[in-house]
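Just scan my protein:

——
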Amino acid sequence: MATLVRKQVILQNKTMKIEINDELFQKLIKRSNTLSLSRSQYIRLLIKQDLEK
């Protein structure tokens, strides 16, 4: 699911603000150890990781 969200963001526009499902976001946060990151920083991190693959 997270991969799908990342790919949609990349396809639409790397700098665009996206709406992400709150429940999904909470799951992503729990899976990672990045509680200090804000929502937008975390989304940017996901995009960056996806681009580096």
Q: What stands out?
A: Residues 39-52 form the longest helix (14 residues). The chain has one domain: 2-52. The radius of gyration is 10 Å.
